[in-house]
Amino acid sequence: MFTEKRTDRTFLAPLALLLVIAGMTAACEEKNAYVPPPPPKVTVAKPVQKPVTDYLEFTGNIAAVQTVELRARVEGYLEKVLFQDGDLVKEGEQLFQIERAPYIAQVDAAKADLARAQASFKQAKLTAERRRQAGRSGAISQQQVDEAEAIQQGQAAEVLAMKAALETAELNLGYTKVYAPFDGRVGRRLKDPGNLVGAGEKTLLAEVNQIDPVYVYFTINERALLPIMEKRNRPDPGTEARGKSQALYLGLATDEGYPYEGYLDFAAITLDPNTGTLQLRGVFNNPTRKLLPGLFAKIRGPVGENKDAMLVPQQAVGFDQQGEYVLVVGADDTVERRGVEQGPISDGMRVITKGLKGDERVIVDGLLRAIPGRKVTPVTEQASAEGAVQPAAPKEASQTKMSAPPPEPGAPAQKQ
What we know:
The protein is α+β, with helices and mostly antiparallel strands. It has helices at about 1-30, 100-135, 140-175, 220-230, and strands spanning about 40-45, 50-70, 75-80, 90, 95-100, 175-180, 185, 195, 205-220, 245-250, 260-265, 275-285, 295-315, 320, 325-330, 335-340, 340-345, 350-355, 360-365, 375-380, 380-385, 390.
C-alpha cells in the first residue's frame, strides 16, 4: 500500500515541472505590443466656383397703397349700412346712407328760389330795355334808365346766387350717400344705423384700404448704401426707384424663401440723421390679399453678381471664439483650421468671401473626428451646387474571381 502512493508522487512531479516550463516558453514567445489606431476617415471636397448673385436682406412693414377714412360730411341720422364688416368693395359702391328728406327739401327750396330770381331778372331786363328806348326818345331822364339797368344787374346777380345755393343743396344731398373711393377692403363700421352723425364734427364711419398692390417700407443703412452707389456710379439712390429697374423679393415669417416679386418704387431724399438709414419703398402685387398691412416682411434685393464666387456646404462652416472657420486637410493629411469670412447662402451652399483659394480640401463630413494638428484619412467627394455632398464614382470591380478553397476530405463537393 505504501509503495503505490510513493510511485504516484514520483510520476506527478516531473509532469508539473514540464507544464510550468511550457507556459514560460509560450509567454516568452508572445509579446504585447501597442498598435496605434489608424487616422479617422473624413470626407473632403474642394470649394465650388460659380457665378452667384449678391443680395442684401432687410426687414420691412407692409402698408396699404391708399387708406381713406369715410366721414359724414352732412348732419343727419344714419339710415343704412350697405356692407358687411371686412367686405371687398368696388370703386363707386355705396356703403352708407344718411337721412335724405331734409336735404331733398333744401334742394326743392333752392330750385324755387332760383325760379323766383330768374323771373325777377326777366322782368328787370324787360323794364330796362323799355327805359333805354324811352331814354333815346327823351321821354325819360338818363337817371331813370340807369336805375333800370342797375336793377337788371342786381337781379342777374341774384340768379347766380340762387344757382350757387341750388348747387350747394344738391352737393349736401349727394353727401347723404357715402361711396367707396376705390377698389379695396372696408373695415368694420364705427356707427350703427339710427345714430346721429355729422353733428358738429365729421363723424368717422369706416376706413377703406387698397391692398392690391401693397407698399413695403424698409430702410438701408449707410454702410450698405455707399458701396452700392459707388458700384453702380449713381449718386442719387432715387434713380433706382424709377422705371421698375430694381427688383425686390418678399417673404413673410412663415414663408420659405421669397415667393413674392416686386420692384423698388421710392427712395427718401435724405438719410435719417438719428439712425443713419435711408427709407425705401417697394411695390408688390397682392391678388390673394395675403399681404396684410402691418405685417412684418423679409425683403431681399439683388445688388450685383459675383462671377467667381466660392461656395462650400453650409455644414462645413463652423464658429468659435475666434470667428468663422472651416477645417481643411493639408498635403500631409493634417487637419488645419482656416479662418474665413462668409457671405450669403446660394442654393443651399455658403458663399466664402475670404480665406479660401479654391484648391483646398475642405472637410464636409466627419468634423467631430477632425482635430486641428492631427492626421486624418481623407475621402474625396464632390460638392454639388445644391449643397449636398455627392459620393465619388465607385471603382470597377475586379474581373478576377477568387477560387474556392479545396473541400476537406469527406466533405460534399460545392456546386459551381
